[in-house]
Design the sequence.
């Protein structure tokens, strides 16, 4: 990853200005992110600084940030734990072991009995293994990701165990090793220089290694054993430039492609991509990292991933519960046996006595004999009532389970539609609409709308125009689907939706005219494309006049019933979708 130990060294050097600052606020805006607000009491600049710690595999980092985050109404448990142990604490030191991708933040805090203790926040930046850990006295207090034996056989991270650093490969520290010693370590290697450098140097990223190879030989694939004396000299020159950069003359560079997408970054100037990439310069390492990871697009993608994970977990939880309920329902099918046993005992009560443990009676329902187990402590009449009681219990359970299974199936269908909406929405407003919808339906806890949120209108549906000029609208989420179908559309408009597949509601605005088969086919293409059947072929799409579409009382958002429908089968085509798109609205 680009945020290597070397760049983290630069971040640490800049953060030393925060030493002495006190923790003012602590937030946990997402599952794997923590934000500490620090205020400096003695510095000339008394403004508050926000320090973000992220353990997300796609955006693991620690840096000062100017981004604003939406925080949940109810703080997660790890956030509350941090507030307990760090609240009001003073930052006294920031440490890094060599150029490892780990920073240690030591806070001087007051414990429960008033003693001064040092609590350390450990930021481990290791891709999907990244973590944020609180350590006191060498022992783990807790972590944002608990690592058990089932997760890792190498290293556990659990409360109350001794904190151990991740396994470390001994490599050279570029700050403490001369260029000549580094070059000698390359002797005898036949692999590519860009691959060899990360093997022998601690804390450098692939982009840095490739840039060194490009600077030395003009080719990122140059093998070590093919370097000429001049090229080896240029390797040494690049290493010395890198050492100077790490000591205060860094050129913080971020690369973007021709579409404006942020691709990579480094603490030295990057020339290996030529004109294929555009380079932007930053004054500080913190500003570089904050801009790369905290842009609106990055935050939106992160929020989409978090929301997707929340809904997926809810879907799996309901699926497991549904399987158990179906199993219990199958067991309820045996309830008639208990009723029959009660009937037989009552019919033969004159032959039975208290103290019997079993009896064999003629079953007048089947004409065969049936062996019935009795409770010796009960009278024959009480045994009969015990069987009737079991029968009634299972009969009641069957009715309740039938209701619960129906509700569970409805919930799964709803969550399936939400998962489809999330996968097709990349806009912050649209994701917020989905989150609010989930909160209203009870699938997401905590959080609250801002005062202005309730006044905001829903985002606009996607707009298309058929070849014959009919306007076609496509909903982006369930709330919008309801509004589109039940409020916006007129009775004579045409409604389309994929058959038994989660997807958007599609409306053909007819204005009283009758659309041709071509228009209906194009609208069906849109319905299939904006559904979970997007990548399939022969996707079934139902279509019907809006007047035949109804929403049952109490139904979840986006759920409707319809009659008089017809079905056609289409294979989604991106070319057709692009041709129908109304520019500037999608």
Sequence:
């Amino acid at each position: 990853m680009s945020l290597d130990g070397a760049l983290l060294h630069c971040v640490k050097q800049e953060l030393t200005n925060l030493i002495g600052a006190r923790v003012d606020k602590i937030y946990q805006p997402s599952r794997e992110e923590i934000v500490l607000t620090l205020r400096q009491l003695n510095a000339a600049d008394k403004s508050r600084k926000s320090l973000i710690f992220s353990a997300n595999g796609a955006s693991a980092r620690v840096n000062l940030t100017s981004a604003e985050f939406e925080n949940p109404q109810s703080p997660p448990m790890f956030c509350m734990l941090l507030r307990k142990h760090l609240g009001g604490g003073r930052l006294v030191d920031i440490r890094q072991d060599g150029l490892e991708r780990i920073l240690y933040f030591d806070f001087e805090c007051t414990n429960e009995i008033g003693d001064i203790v040092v609590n350390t926040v450990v930021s481990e930046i290791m891709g999907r293994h990244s973590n944020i850990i609180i350590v006191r006295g060498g022992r783990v207090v807790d972590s944002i990701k608990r690592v058990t034996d089932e997760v890792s056989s190498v290293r556990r991270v659990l409360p109350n165990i001794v904190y151990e650093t991740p396994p470390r490969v001994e490599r050279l520290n570029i700050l403490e090793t001369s260029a000549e010693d580094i070059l000698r370590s390359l002797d005898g290697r036949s692999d590519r220089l860009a691959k060899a450098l990360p093997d022998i140097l601690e804390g450098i990223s692939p982009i840095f290694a490739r840039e060194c190879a490009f600077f030395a030989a003009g080719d990122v694939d140059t093998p070590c054993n093919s370097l000429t004396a001049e090229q080896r000299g240029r390797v040494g020159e690049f290493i010395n430039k890198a050492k100077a950069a790490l000591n205060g003359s860094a050129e913080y560079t971020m690369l973007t492609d021709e579409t404006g997408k942020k691709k990579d970054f480094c603490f030295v100037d990057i020339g290996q991509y030529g004109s294929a990439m555009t380079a932007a310069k930053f004054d500080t390492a913190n500003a570089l990292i904050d801009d790369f990871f905290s842009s609106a697009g990055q935050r939106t993608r992160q929020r989409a991933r978090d929301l997707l994970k929340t809904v997926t977990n809810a879907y799996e939880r309901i699926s497991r519960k549904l399987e158990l309920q179906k199993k219990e329902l199958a067991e309820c099918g045996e309830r008639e046996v208990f009723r029959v046993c009660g009937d037989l005992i009552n019919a033969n009560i004159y032959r039975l006595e208290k103290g019997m443990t079993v009896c064999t009676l003629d079953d007048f329902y089947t004409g065969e004999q049936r062996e019935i187990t009795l409770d010796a402590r009960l009278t024959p009449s009480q045994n009969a009532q015990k069987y009737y009681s079991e029968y009634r219990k299972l009969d009641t359970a069957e009715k309740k389970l039938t209701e619960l299974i129906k509700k569970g199936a409805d919930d799964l269908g709803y969550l399936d539609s939400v998962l489809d909406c999330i996968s097709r929405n990349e806009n912050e407003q649209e994701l917020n609409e989905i989150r609010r919808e989930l909160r209203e339906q009870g699938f997401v806890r905590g959080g609250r709308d801002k005062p202005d949120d309730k006044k905001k209108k829903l985002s606009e549906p996607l707009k298309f125009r058929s070849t014959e000029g009919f306007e076609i609208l496509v909903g982006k989420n369930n709330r919008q689907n309801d509004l589109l179908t039940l409020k916006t559309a007129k009775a004579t408009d045409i409604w389309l939706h994929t058959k038994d597949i989660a997807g958007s509601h599609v409306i053909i605005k007819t204005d009283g005219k009758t659309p041709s088969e071509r228009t209906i086919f194009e609208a069906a293409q849109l319905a299939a494309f904006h559904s979970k059947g997007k990548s399939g072929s022969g996707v079934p799409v139902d279509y019907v006049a809006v007047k035949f579409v109804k929403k049952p009382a109490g139904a979840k958002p986006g759920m409707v019933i319809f009659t008089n429908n017809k079905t056609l089968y289409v294979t989604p085509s991106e070319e057709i979708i692009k041709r129908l798109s109304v520019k500037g609205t999608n």
